[in-house]
Amino acid sequence: MKRYFALIPAAGIGARMAAATPKQYLPINGVPMLQHTLDAFHHSDQIAHTFVVVSPDDGYIDSITPERSVTILRCGGATRMESILNGLRAMRSELGDDDMVLVHDAARPGLTPQLIAKLIAAVGDHEGGGLLALPVVDTVKSTRTGAVQTTPRDGLWLAQTPQMFSYALLVRALALAPDPNAITDDASAIEMLGLSPMLVEGHPRNMKVTLPTDIAIAEMYLRQDSK
Ligand SMILES: Nc1ccn([C@@H]2O[C@H](COP(=O)(O)OP(=O)(O)OP(=O)(O)O)[C@@H](O)[C@H]2O)c(=O)n1
Ligand SMILES: C[C@](O)(CO)[C@H](O)COP(=O)(O)O
Known about the structure:
By secondary structure, the chain is α/β, with parallel strands linked by helices. Helices cover 28% and strands 22% of the residues. It has one domain (4-127, 159-196, 204-226): Spore Coat Polysaccharide Biosynthesis Protein SpsA, Chain A (Alpha-Beta Complex), CATH 3.90.550.10. The chain has helices at residues 33-42, 80-91, 113-123, 167-176, 186-192, 212-225, and strands at 4-9, 27-28, 31-32, 47-53, 71-73, 100-103, 130-135, 140-142, 149-151, 157-166, 198-201.
């Protein structure tokens, strides 16, 4: 019987946030961002255990008080992919090949147990795994050629996380990726194998908190939970 595990990369520095502390520890409605993210998995009865990857020199993680035990892996790397690869290697003794890994950004505190359940139910045994994503609703412009051009938006999605794959598939995909540090999400490596991860509609509240202006938006969504 396959189990479901969360792997939360939380070893970034938040350069675009340009805050005094790594953004995953900034307060959202008074609670560290990472704490909100952990709570989403802890309130899900489908998640067997949560692993969090932090920097080897992280001095903040001890301030997080998760409701359930988590495994802190002090093996963060220079890139998101390196942190994830290191985390997967550290998880080897705990997971079977068929166990499912839900890789979720610490910087997406708006995740809910309902969105986790939706992803798990929709993906089922789909060979290519799957991820939460949002269909593009705005007109898309490109300046890649120098001139402004409109890219047709039909069929375009914005990837979110969790991105969920079997442990063996994810490890194999990242190992075979020509340059894992050049890809920005795990699904890209799966696609390079010729597989097609399932896109499952997520929610704007599952936004990635990247820029200072994102904090207030995330706080708005999370304030709705306490009503
Ligand atoms: N070397 C890294 C870089 C990123 N992450 C994690 O990957 C997630 C998504 O990355 P991003 O939003 O880019 O976070 P940062 O890299 O911290 O932000 P920035 O790019 O602005 O520095 C975050 O939870 C971040 O902590 C990580 O574990 N290890
Ligand atoms: C994985 C991700 O959140 C999907 O949109 C995104 O690619 C992370 O990018 P970042 O630059 O590491 O924040």
